[in-house]
Amino acid sequence: VYAQRLIEQGLVTPEEVANLEKQRNAFYEEQLEKARTEEPQIDTIPRRTWEGIQIYDDYTLEPQPETRVKKELLTFIAQQVVRFPEGFNPHPTVRKVYESRYEAVKKGEGLDWGTVEMLAYGTLLLENNPVRLTGQDAERGTFSHRHAVLIDQESEARHIPLNHLSHRQAPFYIYNSPLSEYAVLGFEYGYALASPHTLVIWEAQFGDFANGAQIIIDQYLSAAKSKWQRLNGLTLYLPHGYEGQGPEHSSARPERFLILAAQNNMYICNFTHPANLFHALRRQVRSITRRPLVLFTPKSLLRHPECVASLRDLTEGTFRPVLPDPEVPPDQARRLLLCTGKIYFDLVQARREHQKFDTAIVRLEQLYPFPEEEIRQVLAEHSTVEEVYWVQEEPINMGYWSFILRKFSEAGLPVPRPIARREAASPATGSYSHHLRQQSYILRRALDIVTERV
Q1: Which of 146, 252, 298, 399 could cysteine-pair with 392, CB 3.0–4.6 Å?
Q2: pLDDT digits (tens, 9 = 90+) for 329-378
Q3: Burial of 268 (0-12, 13-18, 19+ CB in 10 A)
Q4: Residue 187 CA: distances (Å) to CA of 85, 100, 134, 224, 256
């Protein structure tokens, strides 16, 4: 009909129309013959890059890889990163950060989050595994703990210490990304898919902002293995913790990730010990398989004097999904508190202030896959306690409680009683004074100090 109309308008001739149809049909016939005779070459490059990496079982976890390293390697990394180029002038405060890291490694104790993170990257780079980190404040770190890129205060020249460890190392890529979580997380997911031997990390400026990338999380990160047998080792850093910064800067929405957790599809963790960060990051690359790591990262704990590791934790230790109470022996505990993340340190401080040393506090560092056997052992060791509670900062309808209730019930474990903020539509209050009252209530309730409900 369209060709006839063009002919009537004198725009083309019937011969020209017939010639175009002949060319089109000849092209179709040619492509049809190719489809019948040529051998398809599908996914040859991706398949080569994934050789040796195994599909994980949906219900049985594979053995944990060896993640320890030698002390000499960590010392070497700490030495190399403080060797700035000749004439390079970093900001005095940043220079002090690097020097303090080196001193901590030399002493073998007091390794904070930033130091351990740097060491984990360094070990992988020297093992020829690239590391890639992107995020809206990735180079400095939202809370100024990383300082992975140094700027000369006179020439504005850039220097990335982790790219100057050795001539034979793998590259370290780090970029401050645009303000589109959806676009950047989608790109990084694809990068991790194409490069399974690279530690690929996306860091949200605050964990709250991950909701801008929810489509990538729902459609790909959590379900690609189930839908398409596609593995991915992407790591997410999601700063999380209730510190009075309001409803947009408090919660990475752990409940959303926990409802997606099934069939061993991802690691979901909330660390209070930097050594676990070290071993978990190395596990991402050294494992025989690949799965995403969703990590609720700290904010105030980045500089907390007790949130530190020793060198022995990295050279002789391993990943520990559950951490016992270092202060209260199980046989002295009347009350057992289970928790995860920053609230552990709040509980410890309150326990010391009120001398409640009949209360043990045990941390779940890994929420999923659920560490059932380790928890069963903790409960067996605390067999004489009279009460067991799950304590969280988040409102009762958010956070971890629904997941904990289901997992304890399915495992036939004694179900703890919950202590949390009362249910709320918003993740957190916008009033700092009200935040303090809520937090105080949780701590006093957990330690059995009579208080009115907030």
Answers
A1: 399
A2: 999 999 999 999 999 999 999 999 999 999 999 999 999 999 999 999 99
A3: buried
A4: 33, 35, 10, 15, 22
